Amino acid sequence: MTLSIPKTNYRLQSIASGKIFDDTGWLLDAPGEDKPGLIRAVYEKKQLEVRNKEFGLYQFADWLPVQKSLRGSYAPVTYKSEGLSKLLGLTNLWITFSGYWPEKGIEMSTCSFKETESFSVCARENSQSDKVLVVASAGNTARAFARVCSDNKIPLLLSVPEDNLDALWFNTPIDDCVKLIASRSGGDYFDAIHLSNIACKMDKFYAEGGAKNVARRDGMGTTVLSAVTTIGEIPEFYFQSVGSGTGAIAAWEANLRFLEDGRFGQQKMKLMVSQNFPFHPIYDAWGAGSREMLPFDNRIARKQVEEIDAKVLSNRKPPYALFGGLYDALTDTGGEVMIVHNKEGRLAAKLFLESEGIDIHPAAAVATASLVDAVDANKVEKDALIMLNITGGGEQRFKRENELFYLQPKLVFDIDADEKEVFEKLAGLF
Length: 430
Description:
The protein is an alpha/beta fold. It is 33% helix and 17% strand.
């Protein structure tokens, strides 16, 4: 059963200019502005009223740009750590978990916090009802959007690297309203994005928008909404691994809303974000004090992506430099970017399973390893109020308990496929 919610009242604001305007349908940029920058939702309700847990993700609808609710959602859950905190000698470590963990009251069937994005984006009012939504993904996002769109009969075109197709598993078959295309083996997330951009030049399709979509960011921000309303105050430190950094931007924006709310303190969380060695373009840019991403060889970057365990952390063009992007979020919070090697991530995953009792995704393991490193380096005090964002978990358990079905691509394109070829092959897909 889906519980109905009243329409959320909000407007949009350009971070570059400060201008506030109405959301006229599916805006991803501020109208008439040339400066590269994000737009942000400005909600009528400044104090968050959390609904009953039966509303799933929409218990936070006051701060989500949604006009309806969809069935099957769960909100992230936050709890005070006992096992991991004891091992690390921390007294105030809180874990926000997204995934499959029935004992904690959460059963995200895709086992990833990407469901927070998909349930928010797909519930945003738009004027594209006769068109097909397009989403590019390294894996987890595609799985989440496929599940939500399949269950709610929303036409969707997914673009995923062929090497990441093993991430598209489900416990029930996906409806035919969802179609998958892939970039040939050897390509990466950026190649999937390139394919999706070509598709969006056709009248039949429209872009989900990635970090530019306020619904995606505010959906991801529910991790912080869960943490702050559970703990009762804003944490001092926020740990998460990043590929695009959109989740960290969302966390910062949620923090700013809580400052306006006024009931949870005036703390700005220090963003402690991490990348998986050897692919770490955000770490390199931040370490160099550069607002712009540093140049790199795409062939080398693809090889680096092949080496990392956390494939979802493989964005070569993150929303870093633009106004309101990750650079601004890190600057405003005095944040830090860390590096985690595969071996450290694997050890952290084992540590989490043994101490907390659930398996976690490689990206969440990278975040956990960065927390371990920060403790070892005395970057956080033992009594500091810390939020660890576990962005995916319970997958191994879920797979043991369920029969799995895999979504197969309808079309596979070479990395250097030209627009004409893509246009011709996509024309009859829907």
